[in-house]
Amino acid sequence: MVVITKIDICPPQILEQTITQLTRILKSPGARKIPIFISSHEQTVTTATQFVSQRICPIFQVSNVTGEGLDHVRTFLNILPHHGHYDAQAPFEFHVNDTFSVPFVGTVVSGVVRSGVIHSGDPVIIGPDSLGQFTTTAIRSIERKRIQVPVCSAGQSASFALKRIRRKEVRKGMVVLPKLDSNPKVYREFVAEVLILSHATTIRPKYQAMLHVGPVSQT
């Protein structure tokens, strides 16, 4: 899905140019999407129920100032079928989206449990750091929606208070894993095939790109 914002201040010709460019990108051989511009409640419901098809791409035009179009986005997200696959039986894996330092509690990391189950008091490791190492710690406490809970399972967002960890030792993009006899392997390089749909400048040797993988954003 695509959300075009600030339509209350955008000049009509610029909005038209944006829509034309967006439509061209979605219909390009690399994307092969069918753009659908949402303008009514009935269209929102119909598109959301048919979103199982990977060919369609709903486009919303909204204004955060006037509120125009926001009801369509909320309706779409509320009735959108769930496609995520979270396995509570698999080994525990937690992706760190943010870090905090809470008075009288210590270092807290928030994110989503990708798989498995974790309990308050369980020993875990967090990393990797800049040297590819993992640090051993334990779950001091677990909170979900500001309520303390004893356990958290796959698919749930949560915050973990960690024992004996300083905030400067953790960062967004790290993972929390169960403590095992040996640490997982860490890789600095990988080979990937990249499809460029659209780019404003020329990509040449020594060009520095931004890579987004889950919660990780890295140049």
Summarize the model shown.
The chain is α+β, with helices and mostly antiparallel strands and 219 residues long.
Description:
With 219 residues, the chain is of the alpha+beta class. 16% of the residues lie in helices and 33% in strands. It has helices at residues 12-26, 41-49, 70-79; strands spanning 2-4, 34-37, 56-61, 93-102, 106-115, 117-119, 123-127, 135-144, 147-149, 151-153, 157-162, 175-178, 211-213, 216-218. The strands form 4 sheets. It has a 6-stranded antiparallel beta barrel with strand order 4-5-11-8-7-12. It has a 3-stranded parallel beta sheet with strand order 1-3-2, covered by helices on one side. It has a two-stranded antiparallel ribbon with strand order 6-10. Helix 2 (41-49) links the parallel strand 2 (34-37) and strand 3 (56-61). The mean pLDDT is 92.
Q: Could you tell me the mean pLDDT?
A: 92
Radius of gyration computed on alpha carbons: 22 Å
Q: Note the run of SSEs as H and E.
A: EHEHEHEEEEEEEEEEE
The outline comes out as globular
Structural class: alpha+beta
**Spatial separation of the terminal alpha carbons:** 26 Å
| Spatial strand arrangement across the major sheet | 4-5-11-8-7-12
Low-confidence stretches: none
Biggest beta sheet summary: 6 strands, antiparallel, barrel
Strand content: 25-35%
Residues in helices, as a percent range: 10-25%
Tally of strands: 14
Number of helices: 3
